[in-house]
Amino acid sequence: MPGSPSAASLAARRILIPALLGVAALGAGSTDAGRIHRIDEEYARRDFEKRGFTFVAKSDVLRRPDDPRDQITYKGPMVGKTDRFAMVLRKQR
How far is the C-alpha of 28 from the C-alpha of 41, rounded, in Å? Predict the structure, then answer.
């Protein structure tokens, strides 16, 4: 039904995407993406923007400054303990 909360939610999902990514060392670009599943936050943002997305917001809620950023994000002792960044991006129409 138009104007309902569920319709608004569906519309938002069509134009906004969440991005939760493991943080690589500053300046690493995408070099750690394949090896340890991490990416430089500024590199990721620029890459999304080059592909037609507009940056909307970010949150530091998932930041873990004690993460050494040199281990794979989804295995072993780092699961749930990695420094991650969260961004909301809008798709260009």
Answer: 9
Q: Measured between alpha carbons, how far is 42 from 64 in angstroms, rounded to an integer? A: 17
Give residue-wise pLDDT tens across range 16-57. 666 678 899 889 989 998 899 999 999 999 998 998 889 999
- Judged on CB neighbours under 10 Å (0-12, 13-18, 19+), 76 is exposed
Domain boundaries, the chain: 16-91
Q: Which pTM was predicted?
A: 0.75
Q: Is 92 exposed, middle or buried (0-12, 13-18, 19+ CB in 10 A)?
A: exposed
Measured distance CA(1)–CA(50) in Å, rounded:
35
Give the closest residue to 41 by CA, choosing from 22, 65, 60: 22
Q: How many CA atoms lie within 13 A of 23 on its CB side?
A: 20
